[in-house]
Amino acid sequence: MMTTVYRTLELDIISAKDLKDVNLFSQMSVYAIVSILGDPLNPQITTTHIHRHAGRNPTWNIPVKFAVNESLAYYNRLSLEVKLISYRKFLPCSTIGKVRIPLKGLLDNPANAGFQLSYQVRKKRSRKSKGTLNLSYKFGDRFYAQVTTNVIKNDGLFIGMALCLAMFIILA
Fold first, then answer.
1. Measured distance CA(125)–CA(97) in Å, rounded
2. Which residues, including other chains, have CB under 8 Å from residue 104's CB and lie 6 or more apart?
3. Residue of 30, 32, 90, 134 with fewest CB within 10 Å of its CB?
4. Residue 159 — pLDDT band, cuts 50, 70, 90?
5. Mind listing the pLDDT tens digit for each residue in 92-150?
6. Whole-angstrom Cα distance, residue 41 to residue 38?
7. Which residues pair with 145 in a beta bridge?
8. Is 70 helix (H, G, I), strand (E, B) or coil?
9. Pfam families, alphabetically (predicted)?
10. Among the CATH numbers 2.120.10.30, 2.60.40.150, 3.90.380.10, 3.20.20.70, which is that of 2-171?
């Protein structure tokens, strides 16, 4: 075991605007998968609720907290990823796009509580915007934690599919 310095990252996933409509016949019901990428010893992932029939402008206003390894963040190894998903009851869920934000940039420019930022939602290998994600963030005080070195490798695609399946089971 080793002792590591962490900071609490408090996010508020506020809303998305002008998302690309990936549904052909109905209004989109959208949720977000929020995760911290790059820390193999402390994988963190959560989801928002599904904003049903939100169309292109879902709103969540959901607070999310993560424990961020400060050293990895300052060495630009960690990023915040928000993946926007269109939930479909009878068809597979469809990825609208995602936002990936290096945590070093957020640490270097601490925001005041309630300060809202906007990021372009993009698909992999696409330069064209698929909409805008609005969020706010704040870093808490430092704390120390004992970390074990047992690493469980996970596949992001599998997690996303499992979450989509779990949402289907819960909401069906």
1. 11
2. 73, 74, 75, 76, 78
3. 90
4. very low
5. 889 999 999 999 999 988 766 667 899 999 987 778 889 999 999 999 889 998 876 65
6. 9
7. 4
8. helix
9. C2
10. 2.60.40.150
